Amino acid sequence: MSTSTFEACLKRFRSTDPSIRRESAEALATLDQSQAVNPLIDGLRDENPGVQEAAAAALIRIGGPRVVSSLVPLLREDVGTRNLALEVLEQTGSAGLDILLPLLSHDDANIRKFVVDTLGKLGDDRAIPPLIATLQDREPNVRGSAAEGLGRLRAREAVPQLLGLLDDNEWVVFTVIEALGDIADPAALPALMALLKDGSETVRYAVIEALGKFSDSAACVKPMLELVSSADRDLRDLLTKNIIALAGTNGLDLKSMVNPDWFVLVLEDAVQADQEDVVMAGIRGFEMIENSAGTIAILGSLEGVGTRFQARADEIFEQAGRALLRCADGSALMAALTSPVEQVVSLAAETLGKLRSREAVQSLAQLILRHGDREVRRQAVEALGRIGDPITIRFVISALEDENGHVRAAAATVLGKWTNQCGIEPLCGRLIVEPYADVGGNRRCLVRQPSSVGE
Question: What pLDDT is recorded for position 208?
Answer without folding.
Answer: 84
